[in-house]
Amino acid sequence: MLYPLLASRIALARSGFGKKLLAPASYGLISLGVHCKHTLPDLPYDYNALEPYISADIMKLHHQKHHATYINNLNIAEEKLADAVVKGDTSTIISLQPALKFNGGGHLNHSIFWEVLSPHGGGEPEGKLMEAIGSGWCWLGYDVTAKQLKIVTCVNQDPLKATTGLIPLFGIDVWEHAYYLQYKNVRPDYVKAIFHIANWKNVAERFNAAQVS
C-alpha cells in the first residue's frame, strides 16, 4: 500500500473510536472539498494548568512550536501527495511516505497526548481499565483481535494504529522537547510526574470505545 497513514485514517473514521479521534472539532481538520487541511487543535486546558508537573513554558513550546511544525509539514506533504496522485507520479508518492508517517504520526500522537493529560488527573485508573492494565507502560494500546491491552514503544513519531494495528489509549511523549527545559536529562522524573496528571477518565473512554470497535 502506497500511503498507509491515509488508509489508517480512513479505517479509523469508519469506527466509533475513529470518528472521535479524527473529529474536526478535536483535531483541527478543515474540510477543503475532497481534501482536508490540518490545523493546530486547542489544548483542553491552559498552558499553566499542568504545573508543577509540566511547566507553562514547556507546554507552550511543545504545543505551539513542535506540534504546529508537524501539522505544517503534514499539510505540505499531503498537498504534494495529492498532486502526485493526480499526475500518476508513483516515484514521488513513494518518496513522500517518510514525511507522511513522521509528521502525520507527530500530529496524531500529540493530539492524543494533550487529551490523556488533565489538571484534574492523577491517582489510579478505575474499573475494567484498572483490572486490565497491571503495571507500567509507554504506549498503552488495545488489540482488537486478541481483545487485550498491550504495552509497546514506537520510534520517532510512528503512530500506534498505523504501525502496530493497536488502538491508542494512553501515551507519553518522551522526546526531549517534551521535558528537557524542566527536567533536563532526568527523564524518569518526567515520566513519574505524568501520572500525577494522567486523565484516566479520557483513557477509560478510549478503552470502552475500542472494545466495541
Automatic annotation (TrEMBL):
| E.C. numbers | 1.15.1.1
User: What GO molecular function terms would the record report?
Assistant: manganese ion binding; superoxide dismutase activity
The segment(s) forming the Manganese/iron superoxide dismutase C-terminal domain are: 130-206
Question: One GO CC annotation, please?
Answer: mitochondrion
- EC main class here is oxidoreductase
Which residues are listed for Mn(2+) binding in this entry? H62, H110, D173, H177
- Span of domain Manganese/iron superoxide dismutase N-terminal: 37-118
Q: What's its catalytic activity?
A: 2 superoxide + 2 H(+) = H2O2 + O2
Q: Which UniProt keywords apply?
A: Manganese, Metal-binding, Oxidoreductase
Role noted for this protein: Destroys superoxide anion radicals which are normally produced within the cells and which are toxic to biological systems. Destroys radicals which are normally produced within the cells and which are toxic to biological systems.
Q: Which family, according to the similarity comment?
A: Belongs to the iron/manganese superoxide dismutase family.
Q: State the name under which the record lists this protein.
A: Superoxide dismutase
Q: Which organism is it from?
A: Acanthosepion pharaonis (Pharaoh cuttlefish)
